[in-house]
């Protein structure tokens, strides 16, 4: 969507969500999860009218991200967004942040630290625990990729923030080092046609890089099963470093090494555990060298895969984290 259509969609959903939530029967607690920030409004209104507490989960930094990236401009819109943020935080009984960086940003707005709990995104380990045969079937359905080529996969949005130009230029440089390494990008978004044009211009589309439409989440295990390495790519901007993207945790659940091109808590986690790579965000030729070296090292690949699966089960299992969420909901009504 264009930014205007997106804003109108947010407003429409906010109005409908308010109407639906007010028509519900008895509730002990109201739970709202952003983004966008406006989703806090129906929860707050319902909380006031029904006199029930609400818990607010912050999945991305809004309005910091759109302001920093120049998407939200002008004194009035920025002022309204920041005031709305403070009002929602103040009225929430508890706030859940998906990363330490998000928690720090919330506290900087004046929220008491004890009110904000970090509960990160979770890994659906059961969903992604599939046999290698599932991945082999996917490769057989897409013979253009090849049955034995190392495969680097991206799954997710094709938007401005995702900065997939980086991944396409990376594929271009990797091709000069090893033309057998393949890249697969699955998703949709506002930049998809521009990205196709760039891939054609660099002569990688259909050679060592393929772009496919988004697929249902239930089909994602097959893609990650056949991947050699997964990726999470974003713009080189510190405001995005606190993200907690689903694709990162899906890769861990599938037991796949993950390569990212940004700093922050995920970069620190990968360096500490060895579950993946932190690629150079500015020097793409150097990032290509990093990637090719890792893909040519079977010992590193096996160890990184083991570390990824270990993180998925020991730190980010949904079965474990759901209890932390339950505790916050219960604390709000106690």
Give a topology summary.
Blueprint: H1 3-22, E1 30-34, H2 40-50, E2 54-58, H3 64-68, H4 75-91, E3 94-97, H5 100-108, E4 116-118, H6 125-128, H7 132-141, E5 151-157, H8 165-177, E6 182-188, H9 192-201, E7 209-212, H10 220-226, E8 229-232, H11 246-253, E9 258-260, H12 265-273, E10 276-278, H13 284-295, H14 298-314, H15 318-333
Parallel strand pairs: 1-2, 2-3, 3-4, 5-6, 5-8, 6-7, 8-9, 9-10
Helix pairs in contact: 1-2, 7-10, 8-13, 11-14
Task: Give a verbal description of the structure.
This protein is α/β, with parallel strands linked by helices and 334 residues long. It has helices spanning 3-22, 40-50, 64-68, 75-91, 100-108, 125-128, 132-141, 165-177, 192-201, 220-226, 246-253, 265-273, 284-295, 298-314, 318-333; strands at 30-34, 54-58, 94-97, 116-118, 151-157, 182-188, 209-212, 229-232, 258-260, 276-278. The protein has 2 domains: 3-121 and 318-333, Rossmann fold; 125-314, Glycogen Phosphorylase B (Rossmann fold, 3-Layer(aba) Sandwich), CATH 3.40.50. The protein has 15 helices and 10 strands. The longest helix has 20 residues, at 3-22. The radius of gyration is 21 Å and the shape is globular.
């Amino acid at each position: 969507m264009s930014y205007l259509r997106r804003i109108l969609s947010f407003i429409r959903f906010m109005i409908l969500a308010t109407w639906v939530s007010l028509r519900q029967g008895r509730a002990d607690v109201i739970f709202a999860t952003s983004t966008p920030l406006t989703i806090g409004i129906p929860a707050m209104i319902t909380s006031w009218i029904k006199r029930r507490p609400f818990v607010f989960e912050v999945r991305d930094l809004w309005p910091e991200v759109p302001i920093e990236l120049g998407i939200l401009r002008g004194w009035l819109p920025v002022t309204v967004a920041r005031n709305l943020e403070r009002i929602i935080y103040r009225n929430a009984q508890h706030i859940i942040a998906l990363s330490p960086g998000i928690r720090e940003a919330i506290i900087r707005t004046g929220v008491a630290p004890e009110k904000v709990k970090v509960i990160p995104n979770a890994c659906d380990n059961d969903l992604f625990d599939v046999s290698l045969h599932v991945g082999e079937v996917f490769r057989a359905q897409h013979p253009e990729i090849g049955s034995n080529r190392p495969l680097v996969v991206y799954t997710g949005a094709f938007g401005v923030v995702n900065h997939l130009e980086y991944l396409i230029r990376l594929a271009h440089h990797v091709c000069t080092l090893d033309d057998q390494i393949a890249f697969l990008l699955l998703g949709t978004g506002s930049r998809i046609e521009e990205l196709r044009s760039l891939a054609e211009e660099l002569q990688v589309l259909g050679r060592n890089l393929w772009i496919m439409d988004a697929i249902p989440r239930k089909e994602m295990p097959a893609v990650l099963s056949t991947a050699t390495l997964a990726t999470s790519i974003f713009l080189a901007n510190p405001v995005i470093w606190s993200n907690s993207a689903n694709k990162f945790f899906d890769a861990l659940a599938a037991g796949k090494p993950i390569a990212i091109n940004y700093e922050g808590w995920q970069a620190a986690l990968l360096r500490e555990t060895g579950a993946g790579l932190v690629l150079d965000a500015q020097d793409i030729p150097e990032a290509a060298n990093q990637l090719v070296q890792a893909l040519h090292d079977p010992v590193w690949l096996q160890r990184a895969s083991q570390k990824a699966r270990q993180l998925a089960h020991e730190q980010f299992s949904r079965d474990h984290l759901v209890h932390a969420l339950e505790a916050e909901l219960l604390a709000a009504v106690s």
